Each structure stands twice: as structure tokens, then as C-alpha cells.
Amino acid sequence: RLETVRGFAKGASIEGIKDIVAVASGKGGVGKSTTAVNLAVALAKSCKLRVGLLDADIYGPSIPTMMKVSGKPEVNEDLKMIPIRSHGVDCMSIGFLVGKDAPIVWRGPMVMSALEKLTRGVSWGELDILVVDMPPGTGDAQLSISQRLQLSGALIVSTPQDVALVDARRGANMFRKVEVPILGLIENMSCFKCPSCGEKSYIFGSGGARKTADEMDMEFLGEIPLEMEIGSCSDEGSPVVISAPDSIVSKAYCDVANKV
Ligand code: ADP
């Protein structure tokens, strides 16, 4: 998809980076960061691309835990921060710059300046794709990122629940307003397969995300089931695409990566 949409958005590009892709959600807790991480690793591992991962979820950075990266990034001679590499992906997160349990109680201008540092103050080198884990919702920070960076496209993550899909629509409409192409909708936590009897339960409903994608004229990129392994691998800092490469969920992430 990126081949066809690249260059439409208005913001400024980052030197050396071919495509910047935002992973967004209307609501928090729907699996946006988990999707961003597994997608980034799948793009590096299965699509053999040079990939960066930017944790722009300024108030709740998850990338340090999910990618098992910590410490302060080194700075080069141009005073640019050098991303920290993990699982084949170059990572940068606001979490590297503040204490692990420190609350980030910043007002708008500080958030903007932090985001500027995390994007243009970083020595990204040559990348095929920079995956941006966006903050949830459609506030100031989200709008600024979408306007200041030339995003090649945005991916929207939602659970099948109506309450999440309503916000996913808002998120999609925000990108449309600022003329960022939407690459598609990913349904996370689509169903749960009982490990004992194998029966599938559609805990958050079924079919809603596909219908929303159709109604909003977005591509439906795939379903990621609710799977204990996804959560435990994230907590251990070893994304499921790495820990269980032959699992169904891993294949689902690689499928999405290939479509992008
Ligand atoms: P968000 O970035 O939208 O706030 P996260 O990616 O942090 O959401 O996910 C919220 C929680 O749900 C995390 O504990 C994560 O491990 C878990 N999670 C996300 N997707 C799945 C899934 N498909 N199956 C099981 N757990 C998941």
C-alpha cells in the first residue's frame, strides 16, 4: 500500500526515512502499542526492511518494556540521540529520557518540544520505515504529529467493541482532516480460543470492525485474536513475532506487515 500513498501528506519528512507510518487508536488499552511493536519487528524480520520504532505515546510509553530496552541513548557529534536497537529495530522512546515510574505531567508546549526532540533530534540513519506508536485519542499531540511529520499513512487499531470503534472512527476522521492516507483498520482481541476445548468466544462482539472499515472506506487489514501469549511476551520484552514465530498470531502480524 505504501507505494501508492507515499508523499500525499503535508508535513515535513525526516532525512533518510522513506516512510513514516503512524499506528493509532481512538481509545487506550486496545492494543495499539502491542500492534506497533509486533508490526515493526515483523517488518524488520519477515519483510527484511530497515525499521525504526518511535514511542510517541508520551503519557504512557510502553516500548521500553515491550522491546526490553532501557538506559539513556548516546548522543553523536551533532548532538543527536542514537536510537537503541532491539530485535532488529531502532527504538526511541520518551521512556528513555524520564524515570521508569516518573509521571509525565507536562503541558502542551513541553509535549510538543519532547516530540520534536524524539523525531528530528534523533540520528535515525537510513530507514525504510519508521513506525510511530501514537498517543491514544485525537488531542493536541496527535494532531501535531500528523501535521508536522510527513506521514505516509496511518493504521488504526481497534477492538471489535462498539465503544472502541466509535473512537476509532474519530481517529480515522482526524487523519482524513489533515490529509494523511489511512492504510487500514486492524481488529485486535477479535476472539478468544479456549485452550481446553478449542471453542471460540467473541468476547467483544464480532464483525463490527470489518463493518466499520467498509462504512469508512478503509481496508480491513486483519484480525489478531486475544491470546495470552501476546500479553506475556510483551511483558517479557520479547514480542510474540520473535518468541513464537510459528504461532497463528505471529502469522497474523506478518500478514498485516506484508499488506502495508
Ligand atoms: P494500547 O497501546 O492501546 O494502550 P497495549 O498495546 O498497551 O494497548 O495493550 C494493552 C494490554 O493488552 C497489554 O497488557 C497487552 O499486553 C495486552 N494485549 C494487547 N493485545 C493483546 C492480544 N491480542 N491478546 C492478549 N493481550 C493483548
State the main characteristics:
260 residues, alpha/beta, Rossmann fold, 9-stranded mixed β-sheet, 10 helices, 36% helix, globular, binds adenosine-5'-diphosphate
Task: Give an account of the 3D structure.
Helix content is 36%, strand content 21%. It has 260 residues and is an alpha/beta fold. α4 packs parallel to α5 (140-148). Residues 25, 28-34, 62, 136, 188-189, 224, 226-227, 230-231, 234 line the site of adenosine-5'-diphosphate. Adenosine-5'-diphosphate binds next to α2, β7, β9 and α8. InterPro entries: Mrp/NBP35_ATP-bd (IPR019591), NUBPL-like (IPR044304), P-loop_NTPase (IPR027417), YlxH/NBP35 (IPR033756). One of its GO terms (cellular component) is mitochondrial matrix.
